[in-house]
Amino acid sequence: MTLSEEDYVKAIYHLGKEQSAPVSTNAIADQMSTKPSSVTDMMIKLAEKGLVNHKKYQGVTLTDHGKAIALSIVRKHRLWEVFLVDKLHFSWDEVHEVAEQLEHIKSEKLINHLDKYLGFPEVDPHGDPIPSKKGEMKKTVKKLLIELPAKSIGICVGVKDTSQAFLRFLDKNGIALGDTISVLDREEFDGSMQIAINGIEIHISQQIAANLFLKIPE
Amino acid sequence: MTLSEEDYVKAIYHLGKEQSAPVSTNAIADQMSTKPSSVTDMMIKLAEKGLVNHKKYQGVTLTDHGKAIALSIVRKHRLWEVFLVDKLHFSWDEVHEVAEQLEHIKSEKLINHLDKYLGFPEVDPHGDPIPSKKGEMKKTVKKLLIELPAKSIGICVGVKDTSQAFLRFLDKNGIALGDTISVLDREEFDGSMQIAINGIEIHISQQIAANLFLKIPE
DNA sequence: AATAATTTTTAGTTAAAACTAAATATTTGT
DNA sequence: ACAAATATTTAGTTTTAACTAAAAATTATT
Ligand SMILES: [Mn+2]
Ligand SMILES: [Mn+2]
Ligand SMILES: [Mn+2]
Ligand SMILES: [Mn+2]
What we know:
Two copies of one chain form a homodimer.
Chain A: H1 3-16, H2 25-32, H3 36-48, E1 52-54, E2 60-62, H4 64-86, H5 95-102, H6 108-117, E3 142-144, E4 153-159, H7 164-172, E5 180-186, E6 193-197, E7 200-204, H8 206-209, E8 212-215
Antiparallel strand pairs in A: 1-2, 3-8, 4-5, 4-8, 5-6, 6-7
Helix pairs in contact in A: 1-2, 1-4, 2-3, 4-5
Bound molecules: manganese (II) ion (4 copies).
The structure holds a DNA duplex.
């Protein structure tokens, strides 16, 4: 597997897990910041290698083999993110670019020792679950803050948008994973909300509420 | 800088530090397991980039810029080796292949945080000095065991051969960096020696003695 | 000094991964 | 249902980093 092939397989995995439909050529091109014609070339190659199912003009889906590879890359990406934050004291908005490189290092032993060294973490710094050696992953039952009615309460467990801009906004406003958030009031007109976070009241826009995942207690 | 360019620059650095003469095309091809014609192509490219001085048929030397890049790669390689041994409990004969990949990760912040996290080590697991951020490196005054006369004493500080075979031999015979070695007797006929290592007497062949570096106390 | 051996470079190919422009298929709107 | 818009593929080109085979330069040997 080349670095480029790995990035394509990972992109298809991330795009595909949202819907059940096949992933379109243009969607992949967007995600990878490349041209659709380059994507078609790569899809033909990945199909020949048995990593994707490709029907002309119908998009692609990952084969079981392709999905296993995608999960192993996601595993490596997220474990390295934990390393960068927990051990090297990077902030959560700085880790993505470096993990994007580290995820391609080839060594079974390295990644399994790293996993142990980090204490077998279950989620990365953005609250995303880390696949096991065998590709199993805990499905977290989480909801976007914007979907919650007034008076509800939850624990912040992840972010949808992982851009530096958003993560820094959260840091600035004292919102971190693990914090308890309660919805005090919803403004249906613009989707904004009044919330309490660790006891402090703040007002947040729809944009923010649409990108914060909460775990809701039973 | 591409991964391939970095590996070439590093190879030229390692080949060049032994002698004062320029490094030959064939020597580079050997080191890189590639063909001389491929080396010539790359040397022309590196010369255009200002990393090497290249006179046709006369070999190459690194420019100051090229040397600085080589040292930064060596720094990364050796720091990652320390990480693998100290933190992930790899043995010193397993780290090279993985460090060969990790040395190409691009992030100033990553390598400087790693340096701090490891406690600013001065040598790697094979006793080789780690260049500073600015490319400065402690020159260790070390001698090969084979050069020492009978009755002399020294501390094992490095290995010349870093092959798995040799490193495992040392492990098996209880020879590690930091150990005190005294030469009890030399057999000039075959170059073998009787030595005491941490009090225990053993007999070693010329091959072994020619690949162990010792620091000699004043 | 001339020839032989070795080293290095040049010329021409190949494969991976990107691109542009053009052709073809699918989807959408009337 | 048909034309227009959009999505996808094909064809042909570029760049990087290899390769082989042949030519040229250097070094060694007689
Ligand atoms: Mn990547
Ligand atoms: Mn993440
Ligand atoms: Mn390398
Ligand atoms: Mn080393």
